[in-house]
UniProtKB/TrEMBL annotation:
<keyword id="KW-0255">Endonuclease</keyword>
<dbReference type="InterPro" id="IPR051916">
    <property type="entry name" value="GPI-anchor_lipid_remodeler"/>
</dbReference>
<keyword id="KW-0540">Nuclease</keyword>
<dbReference type="GO" id="GO:0004519">
    <property type="term" value="F:endonuclease activity"/>
</dbReference>
<feature type="domain" description="Endonuclease/exonuclease/phosphatase">
    <location>
        <begin position="104"/>
        <end position="334"/>
    </location>
</feature>
<feature type="transmembrane region" description="Helical">
    <location>
        <begin position="12"/>
        <end position="31"/>
    </location>
</feature>
<keyword id="KW-0812">Transmembrane</keyword>
<keyword id="KW-0472">Membrane</keyword>
<keyword id="KW-0378">Hydrolase</keyword>
<dbReference type="InterPro" id="IPR005135">
    <property type="entry name" value="Endo/exonuclease/phosphatase"/>
</dbReference>
<feature type="transmembrane region" description="Helical">
    <location>
        <begin position="68"/>
        <end position="86"/>
    </location>
</feature>
<feature type="transmembrane region" description="Helical">
    <location>
        <begin position="37"/>
        <end position="61"/>
    </location>
</feature>
<dbReference type="InterPro" id="IPR036691">
    <property type="entry name" value="Endo/exonu/phosph_ase_sf"/>
</dbReference>
<protein>
    <submittedName>
        <fullName>Endonuclease/exonuclease/phosphatase family protein</fullName>
    </submittedName>
</protein>
<keyword id="KW-1133">Transmembrane helix</keyword>
<dbReference type="Pfam" id="PF03372">
    <property type="entry name" value="Exo_endo_phos"/>
</dbReference>
Length: 345
């Protein structure tokens, strides 16, 4: 730190701490939550660590200081992690092809049945939004029982409420025939679940797996942490990730047993820096956002300030990803995403 004044030295010490923390965070996707539950919680902070290191890099670069090397090297080591925050892809060519499927996933938060938003027209606005995008397949999480007008636009559907008398669950709507469907039936102590449907288009059959991994029970917020003992909150979040690990194994079984190419999509309640995400990618699935996304991939905000990407579309490697789209529409606490995929050879 030769040649630095006391303030610059203090900043560089902070830079070292954040750089080391980011290096450690690169290891988190390889650590099973069942072994180190509390460590898995820190995967939620990886986007913040990346942003802070980018700020330090720009600061030292502007000052023309050699300290810029630290964050530069750390960011380059985790380049794949950095591109999970922001992507730049080429624009779609606009060509229309017969073997292309447009698929969307959307956590609709029970269509505002419990009044989280003052807007009473949320169901109608979600319906109008989906009609305007005109997807071939829509996967919904936190689907509230009862039919929306949008259901009339889809000839085929599979809806699974968590329990017989439950009011919400998962739904899959399709313009093309569903020849088989089912539920993975996460353990009864969880309100979350995953369902699948085998869909046929132009002779090509794909398995679509709609996933809603374990939720936190309450939306993490600064107020929650202030009111509850921080260790208790962190332990609860860690146990959530342990449940997600078990649920992810059921999802893996469903796609590995499928006789057809598969698409895993939905609300993971976890990030691209997590163990569950890596495990699903490593069995032969691509991330549509990383392949064809543009800009920030935010689908949710934690603490109402930290943007996260916790909703995913993961097609099997044999399915070509043509385009990906985020939609920042304020009809839920999640933002919907969609992708255009080429089926078959």
């Amino acid at each position: 730190m030769k040649g630095l004044n006391w303030f610059d030295r203090f900043l560089f010490l902070l830079n070292i701490l954040f750089a080391v923390a980011l290096l450690f965070a690169y290891l988190l996707p390889y650590i099973p939550p069942a072994k180190f539950a509390l460590l898995s919680v820190f995967s939620l902070g990886v986007p913040l660590l990346i942003i802070v290191n980018i700020i330090f890099l720009l600061f030292w670069l502007f000052r023309l200081r050699r300290q810029v090397i630290l964050s530069l090297v750390v960011l380059l080591i985790g380049f794949n992690h950095v591109t999970s925050v922001y992507e730049v892809s080429s624009e779609e060519d606009g060509m229309v092809e017969d073997n292309v499927l447009q698929i969307m996933t959307y956590n609709v938060r029970q269509f505002n049945q419990y009044g989280w938003a003052e807007d009473v027209d949320i169901p109608q606005k979600i319906t109008a939004f989906i009609k305007a995008q005109d997807p071939d397949v829509v996967a919904m999480q936190e689907y509230y029982k009862g039919e929306l007008e949008i259901a009339k636009s889809f000839r085929y559907k599979y809806i699974k409420l968590k329990e017989e008398n439950a009011e919400f669950g998962l739904a899959l709507f399709s313009k093309y025939p569903i020849i088989n469907s089912g539920s993975l039936d996460f353990p009864t102590h969880s309100n979350n679940n995953a369902v699948f449907a085998d869909i046929v288009k132009n002779g090509d059959t794909i398995r679509v797996v709609n996933v809603h991994l374990q939720s936190f029970g309450i939306k993490p917020s600064l107020n929650t942490i202030e009111k509850e003992h921080s260790k208790k909150v962190l332990f609860g979040m860690g146990q959530t990730f342990v449940k997600q690990e078990r649920q992810m194994k059921l999802v893996k079984e469903a796609v590995l047993a499928s006789p057809y190419p598969s698409i895993i999509l939905g609300d993971f309640n976890n990030t691209a820096y997590s163990y569950v995400y890596r495990e699903l990618r490593d069995i032969g699935f691509n991330d549509a956002y990383k392949e064809a996304g543009n800009g920030f991939g935010k689908t949710f905000e934690i603490f109402d300030i930290l943007p996260l990407r916790i909703d995913f579309i993961l097609p099997q490697e044999s399915i070509e990803i043509l385009t990906f789209q985020n939609y920042e529409v304020p009809y839920s606490d999640h933002y919907p995403i969609s992708a255009r995929l080429r089926l078959g050879e």
